[in-house]
Amino acid sequence: MIIDFHTHIFPDKIAHRAVCNLERIGRVAAYTDGTLDDLRRSMKESHVTHSVVLPIVTKPEQFRHINEFAQSITHEAPDADGLSIISFGGIHPDSANYKEELRIIKRKGLKGIKLHPTYQNTYIDDIRYEHIIDYATRLDLIVSIHCGRDLGYPEQVYATPERIRRMLRDVFPGRSAEKLVLAHLGGHDMENESEQLLVGGNYYMDLAYVLRLALPEQILRMCRNHGVEKILFATDSPWSGQKEDVEYIQKIGFTESELEQILYKNGAKLLGLS
Protein backbone atom coordinates (compact mmCIF):
# COMPACT_ATOMS: atom_id res chain seq x y z
CA MET A 1 0.00 0.00 0.00
CA ILE A 2 1.10 3.56 -0.74
CA ILE A 3 -0.17 6.84 0.69
CA ASP A 4 0.31 10.03 -1.33
CA PHE A 5 0.02 12.67 1.39
CA HIS A 6 -0.23 15.71 -0.89
CA THR A 7 -2.59 15.92 -3.88
CA HIS A 8 -4.97 18.50 -5.32
CA ILE A 9 -8.25 18.18 -7.23
CA PHE A 10 -11.14 20.49 -8.10
CA PRO A 11 -14.88 20.04 -8.60
CA ASP A 12 -15.54 18.82 -12.13
CA LYS A 13 -17.21 22.04 -13.28
CA ILE A 14 -14.12 24.18 -12.58
CA ALA A 15 -11.28 21.66 -12.89
CA HIS A 16 -10.37 22.37 -16.52
CA ARG A 17 -10.33 26.13 -16.04
CA ALA A 18 -8.41 25.92 -12.76
CA VAL A 19 -5.73 23.57 -14.08
CA CYS A 20 -5.24 25.53 -17.31
CA ASN A 21 -4.87 28.75 -15.35
CA LEU A 22 -2.34 27.25 -12.95
CA GLU A 23 -0.40 25.67 -15.83
CA ARG A 24 -0.14 29.11 -17.43
CA ILE A 25 0.88 30.91 -14.24
CA GLY A 26 3.39 28.29 -13.13
CA ARG A 27 4.63 27.41 -16.63
CA VAL A 28 4.27 23.73 -15.84
CA ALA A 29 2.26 20.88 -17.38
CA ALA A 30 -0.20 18.98 -15.22
CA TYR A 31 -0.12 15.18 -14.99
CA THR A 32 -3.90 14.88 -14.47
CA ASP A 33 -6.85 17.02 -15.51
CA GLY A 34 -7.51 18.01 -11.90
CA THR A 35 -10.64 15.90 -11.44
CA LEU A 36 -11.30 13.16 -8.90
CA ASP A 37 -11.77 10.62 -11.68
CA ASP A 38 -8.38 11.38 -13.18
CA LEU A 39 -6.70 11.23 -9.77
CA ARG A 40 -8.22 7.77 -9.36
CA ARG A 41 -6.86 6.76 -12.77
CA SER A 42 -3.42 7.97 -11.71
CA MET A 43 -3.66 6.08 -8.42
CA LYS A 44 -4.48 2.83 -10.22
CA GLU A 45 -1.53 3.24 -12.61
CA SER A 46 0.91 4.00 -9.79
CA HIS A 47 -0.44 1.54 -7.18
CA VAL A 48 -1.17 4.41 -4.80
CA THR A 49 -3.94 3.20 -2.50
CA HIS A 50 -4.61 6.37 -0.50
CA SER A 51 -4.51 9.98 -1.67
CA VAL A 52 -4.73 12.89 0.76
CA VAL A 53 -6.42 15.83 -0.98
CA LEU A 54 -5.42 19.31 0.20
CA PRO A 55 -7.89 22.09 -0.70
CA ILE A 56 -6.85 25.73 -0.59
CA VAL A 57 -9.27 28.42 0.59
CA THR A 58 -8.19 31.61 -1.21
CA LYS A 59 -11.08 33.74 0.10
CA PRO A 60 -12.86 33.45 3.47
CA GLU A 61 -16.26 33.10 1.75
CA GLN A 62 -15.11 29.86 0.07
CA PHE A 63 -15.01 28.07 3.42
CA ARG A 64 -18.43 26.41 3.30
CA HIS A 65 -18.46 24.98 -0.22
CA ILE A 66 -14.80 23.89 -0.18
CA ASN A 67 -15.27 21.96 3.04
CA GLU A 68 -18.57 20.48 1.90
CA PHE A 69 -16.80 19.23 -1.24
CA ALA A 70 -13.98 17.84 0.92
CA GLN A 71 -16.46 15.94 3.06
CA SER A 72 -18.35 14.63 0.01
CA ILE A 73 -15.31 13.00 -1.59
CA THR A 74 -13.75 11.54 1.56
CA HIS A 75 -13.93 7.80 2.09
CA GLU A 76 -11.23 6.42 4.35
CA ALA A 77 -12.24 2.80 3.76
CA PRO A 78 -10.99 1.55 0.37
CA ASP A 79 -13.70 1.35 -2.29
CA ALA A 80 -14.34 -1.48 -4.76
CA ASP A 81 -11.16 -0.53 -6.63
CA GLY A 82 -9.11 -0.57 -3.43
CA LEU A 83 -8.73 3.21 -3.44
CA SER A 84 -9.16 5.63 -0.53
CA ILE A 85 -9.58 9.41 -0.78
CA ILE A 86 -8.99 11.42 2.39
CA SER A 87 -9.60 15.13 1.95
CA PHE A 88 -8.48 17.69 4.48
CA GLY A 89 -10.42 20.88 5.05
CA GLY A 90 -9.43 24.44 4.37
CA ILE A 91 -9.55 27.73 6.24
CA HIS A 92 -8.45 31.29 5.44
CA PRO A 93 -6.43 33.42 7.88
CA ASP A 94 -8.96 36.24 7.45
CA SER A 95 -11.72 34.07 8.91
CA ALA A 96 -13.97 36.06 11.22
CA ASN A 97 -14.35 33.09 13.56
CA TYR A 98 -11.48 30.68 13.06
CA LYS A 99 -12.23 28.61 16.16
CA GLU A 100 -15.79 27.83 15.06
CA GLU A 101 -14.65 27.07 11.52
CA LEU A 102 -12.03 24.65 12.83
CA ARG A 103 -14.66 22.99 15.00
CA ILE A 104 -16.87 22.63 11.92
CA ILE A 105 -14.02 20.94 10.05
CA LYS A 106 -13.55 18.61 13.00
CA ARG A 107 -17.29 17.80 13.16
CA LYS A 108 -17.29 16.98 9.46
CA GLY A 109 -14.83 14.20 10.22
CA LEU A 110 -12.00 15.76 8.21
CA LYS A 111 -8.58 14.85 9.59
CA GLY A 112 -6.72 18.08 8.96
CA ILE A 113 -6.38 21.41 7.23
CA LYS A 114 -4.23 22.86 4.48
CA LEU A 115 -2.60 26.31 4.72
CA HIS A 116 -0.98 27.91 1.68
CA PRO A 117 0.68 31.19 2.67
CA THR A 118 1.37 32.26 -0.93
CA TYR A 119 -2.20 31.84 -2.18
CA GLN A 120 -3.53 33.26 1.08
CA ASN A 121 -1.23 36.30 1.00
CA THR A 122 -0.10 35.82 4.60
CA TYR A 123 3.27 35.15 6.22
CA ILE A 124 3.38 31.87 8.10
CA ASP A 125 4.50 33.61 11.30
CA ASP A 126 1.55 36.03 11.15
CA ILE A 127 -0.42 35.93 14.41
CA ARG A 128 -3.56 34.84 12.51
CA TYR A 129 -1.84 31.71 11.22
CA GLU A 130 -0.28 31.07 14.60
CA HIS A 131 -3.71 31.16 16.26
CA ILE A 132 -5.14 28.78 13.63
CA ILE A 133 -2.25 26.33 13.89
CA ASP A 134 -2.35 26.37 17.68
CA TYR A 135 -6.09 25.73 17.93
CA ALA A 136 -6.18 23.21 15.08
CA THR A 137 -3.47 21.05 16.64
CA ARG A 138 -5.19 21.27 20.03
CA LEU A 139 -8.29 19.87 18.27
CA ASP A 140 -6.05 17.01 17.07
CA LEU A 141 -6.27 18.17 13.46
CA ILE A 142 -3.27 17.66 11.19
CA VAL A 143 -1.95 20.92 9.70
CA SER A 144 -0.24 20.73 6.29
CA ILE A 145 1.64 23.88 5.29
CA HIS A 146 3.03 24.84 1.90
CA CYS A 147 6.67 25.74 2.56
CA GLY A 148 9.09 27.63 0.37
CA ARG A 149 8.51 29.02 -3.10
CA ASP A 150 5.49 28.46 -5.32
CA LEU A 151 6.05 28.04 -9.06
CA GLY A 152 3.40 30.60 -9.90
CA TYR A 153 4.76 33.31 -7.59
CA PRO A 154 8.48 32.54 -7.06
CA GLU A 155 9.30 35.99 -5.67
CA GLN A 156 6.55 35.95 -3.04
CA VAL A 157 7.89 33.58 -0.37
CA TYR A 158 5.56 33.75 2.60
CA ALA A 159 6.82 30.61 4.35
CA THR A 160 10.61 30.63 4.37
CA PRO A 161 12.39 28.17 6.67
CA GLU A 162 13.35 31.13 8.86
CA ARG A 163 9.73 32.25 9.26
CA ILE A 164 8.58 28.67 9.81
CA ARG A 165 11.14 28.29 12.56
CA ARG A 166 9.85 31.48 14.20
CA MET A 167 6.26 30.20 13.99
CA LEU A 168 7.32 26.93 15.60
CA ARG A 169 8.93 28.76 18.51
CA ASP A 170 5.80 30.89 18.97
CA VAL A 171 3.16 28.14 18.69
CA PHE A 172 4.85 25.10 20.19
CA PRO A 173 6.95 26.19 23.18
CA GLY A 174 7.15 23.16 25.42
CA ARG A 175 4.65 21.04 23.47
CA SER A 176 4.79 18.68 20.54
CA ALA A 177 4.31 19.70 16.91
CA GLU A 178 3.69 16.11 15.85
CA LYS A 179 0.45 17.03 14.02
CA LEU A 180 2.31 19.44 11.74
CA VAL A 181 3.38 18.59 8.18
CA LEU A 182 5.89 20.86 6.48
CA ALA A 183 5.38 20.28 2.77
CA HIS A 184 8.15 20.21 0.16
CA LEU A 185 10.80 19.09 2.69
CA GLY A 186 10.30 22.31 4.60
CA GLY A 187 10.94 24.63 1.66
CA HIS A 188 10.44 24.16 -2.08
CA ASP A 189 13.50 25.53 -3.87
CA MET A 190 14.93 26.38 -0.43
CA GLU A 191 16.26 22.97 0.55
CA ASN A 192 19.59 24.29 1.84
CA GLU A 193 17.88 26.68 4.25
CA SER A 194 15.46 23.99 5.37
CA GLU A 195 18.29 21.54 5.95
CA GLN A 196 20.04 24.09 8.15
CA LEU A 197 17.03 25.40 10.09
CA LEU A 198 14.28 22.78 10.12
CA VAL A 199 15.67 19.26 9.73
CA GLY A 200 15.52 17.29 12.97
CA GLY A 201 12.44 18.86 14.52
CA ASN A 202 9.46 17.03 16.01
CA TYR A 203 7.14 17.36 13.01
CA TYR A 204 6.61 15.64 9.70
CA MET A 205 7.96 16.70 6.32
CA ASP A 206 6.53 15.61 2.99
CA LEU A 207 8.32 15.04 -0.30
CA ALA A 208 5.84 16.82 -2.56
CA TYR A 209 7.37 18.23 -5.74
CA VAL A 210 10.96 17.81 -4.57
CA LEU A 211 11.71 14.18 -5.41
CA ARG A 212 12.79 14.66 -9.00
CA LEU A 213 14.04 18.23 -8.58
CA ALA A 214 16.34 18.21 -5.54
CA LEU A 215 19.60 16.29 -5.56
CA PRO A 216 19.06 12.64 -4.55
CA GLU A 217 21.94 12.75 -2.08
CA GLN A 218 20.44 15.80 -0.37
CA ILE A 219 17.01 14.17 -0.17
CA LEU A 220 18.51 11.07 1.43
CA ARG A 221 20.61 13.10 3.86
CA MET A 222 17.75 15.40 4.90
CA CYS A 223 15.30 12.53 5.37
CA ARG A 224 17.69 10.48 7.46
CA ASN A 225 18.85 13.42 9.57
CA HIS A 226 15.26 14.50 10.14
CA GLY A 227 14.25 10.93 10.99
CA VAL A 228 12.79 8.68 8.31
CA GLU A 229 9.87 7.96 10.65
CA LYS A 230 8.79 11.61 10.12
CA ILE A 231 8.93 11.65 6.30
CA LEU A 232 5.81 11.28 4.13
CA PHE A 233 5.67 10.25 0.49
CA ALA A 234 3.86 12.95 -1.46
CA THR A 235 3.68 14.14 -5.06
CA ASP A 236 1.72 17.41 -5.30
CA SER A 237 -0.39 15.78 -8.03
CA PRO A 238 -1.34 17.04 -10.59
CA TRP A 239 1.94 18.96 -10.62
CA SER A 240 4.05 15.84 -10.36
CA GLY A 241 3.23 12.33 -11.54
CA GLN A 242 2.33 9.69 -9.00
CA LYS A 243 3.64 6.84 -11.13
CA GLU A 244 6.85 8.69 -11.90
CA ASP A 245 7.49 9.63 -8.26
CA VAL A 246 6.73 6.14 -6.94
CA GLU A 247 9.22 4.67 -9.40
CA TYR A 248 11.83 7.35 -8.69
CA ILE A 249 11.83 7.11 -4.89
CA GLN A 250 12.54 3.39 -5.15
CA LYS A 251 15.76 4.08 -7.08
CA ILE A 252 17.57 6.80 -5.12
CA GLY A 253 19.03 4.79 -2.24
CA PHE A 254 16.44 4.27 0.48
CA THR A 255 16.46 0.83 2.10
CA GLU A 256 13.39 -1.40 1.86
CA SER A 257 12.63 -0.68 5.51
CA GLU A 258 12.88 3.07 4.95
CA LEU A 259 10.63 2.84 1.88
CA GLU A 260 7.99 0.95 3.86
CA GLN A 261 7.92 3.77 6.39
CA ILE A 262 7.91 6.62 3.89
CA LEU A 263 5.47 5.13 1.41
CA TYR A 264 2.86 3.94 3.90
CA LYS A 265 3.58 3.38 7.58
CA ASN A 266 4.28 6.99 8.57
CA GLY A 267 1.23 8.34 6.81
CA ALA A 268 -0.98 5.58 8.19
CA LYS A 269 0.17 6.39 11.72
CA LEU A 270 -0.45 10.11 11.32
CA LEU A 271 -3.88 9.54 9.76
CA GLY A 272 -4.82 6.93 12.35
CA LEU A 273 -5.51 4.25 9.76
CA SER A 274 -6.08 0.75 11.09
Features:
single chain, 9 strands, globular
Account of the 3D structure:
- The protein is an alpha/beta fold and 274 residues long.
- The chain is 41% helix and 11% strand.
- The chain contains 10 helices and 9 strands.
- It has helices at 12-26, 36-46, 63-73, 98-107, 127-138, 161-171, 191-197, 216-226, 242-249, 256-271; strands spanning 3-7, 50-53, 84-87, 89-90, 112-115, 142-145, 180-182, 204-206, 231-232.
- The strands form 2 sheets. A 6-stranded parallel beta sheet has the order 4-5-6-7-8-9. It has a 3-stranded parallel beta sheet with strand order 1-2-3.
- The radius of gyration is 17 Å and the shape is globular.
- The relative contact order is 0.15.
- The mean pLDDT is 96.
